[in-house]
Queue: 2 jobs
Job 1
Amino acid sequence: MNKKLRIILVALFCAGNFNAQIYIQNVTVADVIHKKMIPSQTVVMTGKTIITVKPSKQVKIPANSHVINGEGKYLIPGMTDAHVHFFQSGGLYTRPDALDLRKHVPYEKEISWSHKNMEDQLQRYLKMGITSVIDPGATYNLLKIRDSLKNIERLPSVYMSGPLITTYEPEVFKNLNKNEPFRLLTSIDDAKKLVQEQLPYKPDFIKIWYIVSGDAQKKKEETKKLEPSIKAVIDEAHKNNLKIAIHATERFTAEIAVQNGADFLVHNIEDEIVSEDFIKLLKSKKVIVSPTLTVMDNYYDTYGQKKVYNTYELENSNPQSIGSMYDLKHLTATSDSVMLSKRKARFSDPKVKAYISKTDSIRNVNLKKLAEGGVMIAAGTDAGNIGTQHASSFIAELKAMKESGMNEWQILQSATIIPAKILNKENEYGSIETGKTADFVLLNANPVENLENLTNIDLVMKNGLPIDRERIVKVTPETLAQQQVNGYNARNIEAFLEPYAEDVELYLFPGKLISKGKEAMRKTYSNMFEKYPDLHCEIKQRIVNLNTVIDKESVSGLRPGVKTEATAIYEIKNDKISKVYFTY
């Protein structure tokens, strides 16, 4: 979109003129209902609502109207990530039941961080064209934060359950009061109480964590034993007009849940290839499935110390959460080194790798069978789990769905209209139709030709408001400093250089100029990243004062067994790092 028009539109809505009429002219509209691209359309919005979608030649635009030229561009509905968790950051310390590093970062600190940064994470989703998110498993305090953010028009819509009603509660999550993400179900008598307990917080739905353990036979026995309690939760939720989302990754467990009225399977089946009867059951009950193909591999890659993030992820994830993933490099030299080494060895073992590969294959085969069998699929990442970053992980999930055998139209539906059906919102959003909310994404290229084009965004509209993607996420001196540290630790030259000004100057403190300009840095650091594969920077201490960040750094990997201690002083100007002073 023309930059001048973008500025005018943003200024217009910042001034409170929410009912101005906007025309997107001569655009190709993605009809996700009928799976076709319709060229030369004009979409008209007034306030939050789409009032017309017609061929451009049939629409007369009044003089001095606010017109966005959509020629050569593609308009898709705003996307939805149908499975995220805001009680989890996506960082290394977020699930102490899976990887207990609380001696380094107390879980209370992780809770506090997730609360303070929920708005930031939502801004990142919106920047990616994700205008709605569904959180199947939160806390009572997060439901309150959801409510506090609800009236901010330039944030995604958030649909959230309360704590997961679970058949197994990890010890680490007990006794956290309103920060507790799990509530243990022990009997039929608990069922009504646990649902009723959530009602004052107005959850959008209820989530069950249907966990069974043991060998196949024992799991079946436990599933049947728990069935009456599970049914009681489902019945009580439905009695209160709340749908049920359920975690059930075994076919037998999922089948029992669906037979008893579960509405939304938040994961794919991973223990066996599903039968035609199972597919027919899901289709007949209008159950929606979110396959979450990538989340477990992110855990495994973290345990194996081989998780790699690309430039897109490094530049668009919250710098603190993704940055924590690189802490493994220096934590291996702490008292947890034995535990971490054992994890690494285990997930490098050929037998474990073969098991992971088999499970991945089952998920992929099942997704293709479910999609081809007419089961509704909703794209979801399970973002917030260790290694699965909020917002930036979505495109990788869509690509994994493509690799499983789904086609681009099926995937586009799974990211737009089908998630809207989870909570019966399909008449409100999810497609570009008259009367629906004006949540959509203007793309510079056709997403049906290449899913990567979903990241080639010209404009995002939320509630009929244009989003300034360059400013929607607040840039701070600390986030810039952390972003370049992340790029350094990833040895990714593009992500490392992105926070720097084109004319950046590097000094040896107090004033000896050693480098000038981003291209000079590119040459120096590209050579360094190539030469030193074990390069790693640990931030020992950080001081932020206005537009200056002072980092006390410990750098390893330059010489075997030797760490270089240094201090870096970053000066920020116009949201870029303009000067750096080093002391050794």
Job 2
Amino acid sequence: MKGNWLVAAAMLGTLGWTFAARSPAHADAIADSASQATTQSDAINLSRDLVRLGIAANNLPPNSPTTDARPLFQAALQYAESHPIKRITVDRGAYYFLTPENSTAYLLLKSLSDLTIDLDDSTVFFAGAFLQGFAVVNCEHVTLTRFRADFISRPYTHVQLTAIDPLARRLSYATLPGWPDPVEFNGLAQSTAPTNPLGFWALDFRDGDILPGTSRMELTQPIASGALDLVPSNAPWVQGPTLSTFRPGDIIVVFVRGGQATISVAGGDSITVSDATIYGSSVQGILFNSSSNGIVERVRVMPRPGGLISANAGGIIFVNDAGANHIHNNFVARNLDDALAIYETDAATVVQQLGPRQLIVDRAAFRRFPDGTKVNFIDPATGNELGGATIVSQQPPDSVPPVFGGAVTVMFDADLPTLAAGFGMALADPASRGQGSTIKNNEVSDVLFGRGVYGAGNIGLTVAGNKVGHTSFAGIEIFQNLNGVPLVLIPTPPAHDVTIHDNVVRGSLGPMASGSGSQIAVGAIEVATTTPKNDFPASSPNTNVVIERNAVIGSGRSGIWVNELSGGAIRNNVITGWNQHPELPLNGVDAQTRALIMQDSSQALVTHNSSNLEIDGNVTNPNAVAQGN
């Protein structure tokens, strides 16, 4: 595993992928083209044109750490709203967003259309990491391209371990040159991340890699000078035997998780983020929410030079996919949650059935279900999706935005099945559940706490041609979670019509521990549903999932593990080496589920609670090969 993500990054050129770091000749040619383009009436170069066009009193100089780029970008966007501007660019350099535009974002792009923001391979430094960097809200045909994103005050630091007290769960540390003391995190007010509480966490690294058998460890707040105290937990990696394996000289990465994504897209259609590098985030590197026809391509989410981690949560994430979104030709390494994901959540939870056509529901976060929306219902005990009806009216009326988590009385056009409190309400239209979306030809390396590729509730998702390296959870997983945690975790519907083909999954499930729950760390490729108790129901809510022509190499547990699936195929896959890490601890599951996972880890291919599956042409070899990425 050592250095695999660095090797993978170096190999990207051999894959024919072009990222923001181009050859000087190529970059200069693009710059010349950009210069010519800015002479046109439909383009603005912020470094040259602001004064000439009367947009601002000064142009935006590159490489000026005391110049706040935000007001000048904001002025240019306002100008573009009332003029036929199609392209905004800058001279290549570094730009500093020293103040936010509002309480949630450094720069807001709202209700814009037909606009490209091309930053000419520049680096953008946001003052802090807990607000959205670029927030794209309800835009159409907008592209962000050719930039690097970093922070002046980063949401993580590195210290050197000097002593360990396993009984007290205390890690003593010394600061390292070039990295701030983690006590500086104590000054982060909760208002820094108003929608997402801040948590302090630590990871132990030795020789550049996470210490085997360990995972992220929550820290008590505030941090005392020179000492990191761990929050008591039943997790095996914060107990004395594991803590005793820590050594003075190890590097401890201390990170703050919470806040908002570096690049955030909410609503809208045909938004593209391309040719960019994201050097971390307090949560996701890139997050799309309730958007359609979006594209993220040729983006790297990876540690900045000299760092050991990238995003403190997910890499490139699409949630509540409104259809035909695409994650293609990207590279994600060293993040601390799922690397790539397209998933759906329930839209609401049933509180009470007032009549055959009337419900009271609690909205899931800010999810909308306007009148005319067809919905189905999810049994929380089995995960089964029950046919529903179309919404004809609601009180309070649909609004933008709706009340977060608010109660809604909903009327339907037809009689509903009998629904108890706790049933989920999910959108039924395939186009509203990601139909036509794809995750293709990406590379994932060393996901320290999460899955390589994750899908849930999708209808018509394709996962193909990806290379997934070490992950603590499944390398590729289609997973229905029925366990809702208020303000934290929203249940998901089952998945239908999903294809997983021609991927290479190498070294999943170890040597790092699987973290919060072993139910999502059973197979390198996994399909499953879990109940609110984190066990597996004897049902088959997911339908028509095809897993074919994949190569699974060196899995820590099973190679391919499928549960709760009706219809589909597992065919022509090659599984080489499994159960490579029997020493990994099991966490967050009951005794029955623990026994099941231990039993199944010794098998290459496992199915449970499934029917009408074609299982044919799979090749297995118990001898693992070298696990380089």
